[in-house]
């Protein structure tokens, strides 16, 4: 699981220093595997009445996702 607070990234003083987090980033992401997608899907399904309709509308718009 990811650390809650990363020093210099998510807060001033965290559980882990940013350099340590960067050093173990790839192994951490490999360990997490598909879990973030499952969690996101569960959140989406719990908040939307008709998920199929919403997903179809999103697909029809053909808009690129914007990541920040």
Automatic annotation (TrEMBL):
The protein's name in its UniProt record: Knotted carbamoyltransferase YgeW
Lineage: Bacteria, Bacillati, Bacillota, Clostridia, Eubacteriales
């Amino acid at each position: 699981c990811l650390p809650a607070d990363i020093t210099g990234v998510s807060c001033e003083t965290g559980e882990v220093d940013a350099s340590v987090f960067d050093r173990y980033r790839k192994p951490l992401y490999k360990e997490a595997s598909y879990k973030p997608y499952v969690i996101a899907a569960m959140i989406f399904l719990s908040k939307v009445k008709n998920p199929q309709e919403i997903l179809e509308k999103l697909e029809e718009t053909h808009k690129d996702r914007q990541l920040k």
